[in-house]
Amino acid sequence: MNLREAQGPRVELQLPAALIRLRDASARSLASILSDFFDSADDVLFGMADRAGSNQDQIAYFDAMRELRLRRKTMASTMLAWVTRAFNEIGQFDPMPRSRGMEEVDQDSLSLVDDSELEKRVAIDSLITKLSSRYAEPVRLLGTRIAHLSGHRELAERQMPLSPEVICTGLGLASEDLDIDIRARLVVIKLFDRLLVDRLVPLYQEANRLLIAEGVLPDLKHAPRGGQPGRSTASRPVPPATTATGTRTASGETSEAQSGVTFSELTELLHRSDGVGGGTAAGPGHTGMSPELATGDLMQRLGGLQNSTMTSENGQVLPLSVLLSRVLNQGPDQRLPVNQVDGDVINLVAMLFEFILDDRQLPPVMKMLIGRLQIPVLKVALLDRSFFNRGGHPARKLLNELAMAGIGWTPRSDSQRDPLREKVEWVVERLLNEFTDNVELFDELLKDFQHFMDLDRRRRELVEQRLRDAEEGRARHELARDRVRTLLDGLLEGRELREKTLALVNEPWRKYLEWVFLREGEDSHAWQAATELTGRLAWSLDPEPVDETTRDELLKAIPGITDALRSGLHEISWDPFAIDAAIRDLELAHVDVLQGLVARRTQKAVENELPAGPADELAAPGIEELEAAPAEAPAEPVKDKPEMGAPLSVPTVEAGPDMASTEARQRASEPERPAGTEVTEPAPAQEPEIGSDWMEQAAGLRVGCWVEMPRDSGRLRCKLAAIIRATGKYIFVNRNGAKVAEYQQSELARALSEGRVVMLDDGLIFDRALESIIDNLRHNRRD
């Protein structure tokens, strides 16, 4: 099913005038962006084909280039129509429909997809992830304004007409117009990632500016903490960045015009928090007219410190203040104070790394590696003051990427190679050895590390997809077994079946029922027919109630039941010899049932012919006389085997004198109770109830979030890979995509409440650190 079929009928709504103007302006902006993309794509594809390492790659590049030339207008029209539809059907349009509920099994979503479709889906999801991470703040601001303007307070973030989900699924839909194979199609999607993502700058800028000019929440600086109202936490492939550094532009950067806190505002908060002039991490800032340490000299000294040991004897990373004391206090003639601005930069960077090194989300090894970047990052901040308020700064993005990669990292044994740790160490070593004042090195290493993580993420996503498919298939099998078990228990309850016929129902026929359920579904005609046949089979083996027509009905029904049973077992390829044996046993059982019905009819006829008389004369000696016999002369137990088909009767044991005296002694030994007092058994110990907030937290977990749980006398970091709707299971995997744990929702809520499972904040670490610093400075200022 493609995206067009998934959306169903279209229902256009009457839009507010401001939203119509936003729709038209966005369409013009997107048309211009797509035109620039197609112009650049031709040159890039030609260069990629020229450098291709194999004929297959070269053919894929040329195919993609030819199709993009021929179908650029069609693709642009498809994309613009998709975004326009998201506006026209706002609140009803969903680019990525969710499952209907845990109690329903979506058979389409549980079916296996071929590798080409899976690769395309992974590529689109990866593109959504990149856009969501880069444009988190402007998307939330725009979504809040659109929700306010349209009146759809429950508008999910993915339903916002310019959300990453709408744009990326629109690009995927446009790529379906290309007459190329999956290899070339993936090249096109990769081009979207490479060329289009950074071209979306005017889209979000102009959209927010237009709504501000229309008077829609003009004073809004930060979107609500949870996104716009009604935001669905499960609708995003990655968590939004929580930042207090202002509005990010569409390139992921934060412009000072839209920034919540600029560098000058940070320094003002810093000074007011300290009371007077800001002191540096290595000493007080200088504000007088005596000689100062120039920024160039400070940079030169930091360069000499960059390759020195940055850890203490116990392996802990030394704080920046200790590191700076080595270069700022080297002798009486070198005790020059730093200038005020440099002192502010040093203080801010020191506080940033203090947060990072104290952050429990990062494993100690990753903290140590990232902590070694204190001097290079300080040098970047001294060179470029926009480092603090520009979200797209390469040094800042590299720190975020390293931290996000480290969240799911767990140590390996000495004998195992650890590619992620080796890559992070390589990045750190290159910065320490090569960085002077060339900030471009951060950009180069950022792209290289992102490429490494993209390859690793793609491999893990394929492994996780296979795991999800397997778990969902297992969930369907469990559901089928439960439905069949319930059906058979209900039909066989109170019926007496021969051992061999019971084995037939519980083994091959149970398999047939499960097969029908899995293949056709619970609402299918085939399942209803199989259920009806099972009921007739159970009735034919023990017909109740019995009347004069029962035997005739059985004689008519048995051939059809037998034939249908044989056909069903052949359909699941059961052993033919076992089928013949089972059918013979079934026929013998039917003969016994028919004979039993004849015996009942004969017995009834005899009873009707007997003359009427006193009941004690007509009653035959039997169980009644034995029950009335004195207790001291018990009868010998009857060992004769009961007739086949006759119900077994359990003799009733009456209380004799000994039993009565025993009960009397027991009553006498019990303490006396007031009249009317009920005897209550002690209630079994029950586990404490789970609070509703913990249940809500468990229900709100999104696929992709990281948690920490106990494992093998330690703590294991793992990711929520899937929520199986059919069974309500939460499946967790390690960083390699291997399953490590599964929980039901109530079990997970209890584990969260008891602290056995701890949520990890996988937001951007630099933004979280800066937000913490701002909150602390403002708090100190109020105090």
Outline the fold blueprint.
Elements: H1 3-7, H2 17-50, H3 55-88, H4 107-110, H5 115-134, H6 136-150, H7 164-175, H8 182-196, H9 201-213, H10 263-274, H11 295-306, H12 320-328, H13 340-358, H14 364-371, H15 374-383, H16 394-407, H17 419-434, H18 440-492, H19 499-520, H20 525-541, H21 550-571, H22 576-609, H23 615-618, H24 623-628, H25 657-669, H26 692-699, E1 706-711, E2 714-724, E3 729-733, E4 739-744, H27 745-753, E5 758-759, H28 765-782
Antiparallel strand pairs: 1-2, 1-5, 2-3, 3-4
Q: What's this, in brief?
A:
This protein has 783 residues and is mostly helical. It has helices at 3-7, 17-50, 55-88, 107-110, 115-134, 136-150, 164-175, 182-196, 201-213, 263-274, 295-306, 320-328, 340-358, 364-371, 374-383, 394-407, 419-434, 440-492, 499-520, 525-541, 550-571, 576-609, 615-618, 623-628, 657-669, 692-699, 745-753, 765-782; strands at residues 706-711, 714-724, 729-733, 739-744, 758-759. The chain has four domains: 3-98 and 106-235, no CATH class; 261-277 and 338-410 and 418-464 and 762-783, no CATH class; 494-607; 701-759, SH3 type barrels.
- Number of separate strands: 5
Count of DSSP helices?
28
How do the strands line up in the largest sheet?
4-3-2-1-5
Rounded Rg: 38 Å
* Major sheet: 5 strands, antiparallel
Shape: elongated
What's the domain count? 4
Tell me the helix content.
55-70%
Low-confidence regions: 3-8, 99-113, 225-260, 275-280, 284-290, 614-680
Average pLDDT: 74
Structural class estimated from helices and strands: mainly alpha
**Content of β-strand:** under 5%
Distance linking N and C termini:
60 Å
